[in-house]
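thoughts on my protein:
***
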Amino acid sequence: MDHGMELQGKLPRAGTTIFSVMSKLAAEHGAINLGQGFPDFPIDPVLGELVAAAIRKGHNQYAPMPGILPLREAIAAKAERLYGHAYDPGDEVTITAGATQAIFTVFAAVVRPGDEVVLIDPSYDSYAPGVELFGGTPVHVQLGADMAFDAEAVRRAITPRTKLLLINTPHNPAGRILRDADMCALAELLRGTDILLLSDEVYEHIVFDGVAHASAMRHPELRRRSFITFSFGKTFHVTGWKVGYVLAPRPMTAEFRKAHQFNVFSVNTPVQHALAEYLREPGHYQALAGFFQAKRDRLVAGLRRSRMRPLPCEGSYFLLADYRAVSDLPDLEFAQWMTREHGVATIPLSPFYRHPPPGQRLVRFCFAKQDATLDAATEKLCKI
């Protein structure tokens, strides 16, 4: 048998992503999957029909590299309506193959060997490998036990080699948000530097308890140095479509597109046409906060009947829970045990850290699920 050549890989610490590991284990054991962040409810049939109609109309060949203009115009109009800044759809809006590709392409466009990129742990597991692939050095800043943002800790991590700061709000996996005061603190600490900001805002419409989303684009000092990424998959429950976008000032977009054109070049054409039409009606996303807040509250109420302690969740569709009253197993072992023995799959928190805090006992639940799914899961958890 030809086993192929041995390679010295560029990501020696990386293995199979924890989402694939836990979803595979859930499938093998028939467990309820509250791990990977995908909804188990149907999409709006209107959106599905718009895709079918675009296919029938013949929109099946390559789209323009930055995305079709009607979709970029709809996005620019939405951004101005919600956040008060008018991006140029021609030169400042780019359609991407999901937000992860947008983030990866930012790294490709701006990170050089020796550059440092400040990440805030727990951080989404694709961030650090993307930095490393382009020769950068991830610099990890840990959130505290309450998962609240700490601008002073970010300040201490900045050095003359810092090229980029990456923030995520609402935050996956912590479920916390940055507020206007946090954004002002970021603007103050970046003032007078050439540090770029990458703001991952894919859960922009899923902010709870009547709080407005504090986008980086609301702050002129941040906006002028920011790549801001978004995801239609998160907003419209279509994670498998992998369509997102990035907003950035003209000179930054020009550099982004240089890398984008050699990465995916262009994105799913009929879906772009469907989304352009669908965005004509703002109601499709204005109801998301209430929709997911009800699911958050349902899961929290269920967990409070169990021996797990839910942590505060201000946004996203993820909730952390402390399980130390149930078990002292490390989080990966605990998540695997729960999946195999009790039929509920979660995501352990340690893969979101470079150096997991000793003794931390947290798992992440996804509540982007039907009410019946959440109820069935919490019924099982209450028996542990």
In short: The CA atoms of residues 111 and 134 lie 6 Å apart. The first strand starts at residue 32 and ends at 33.
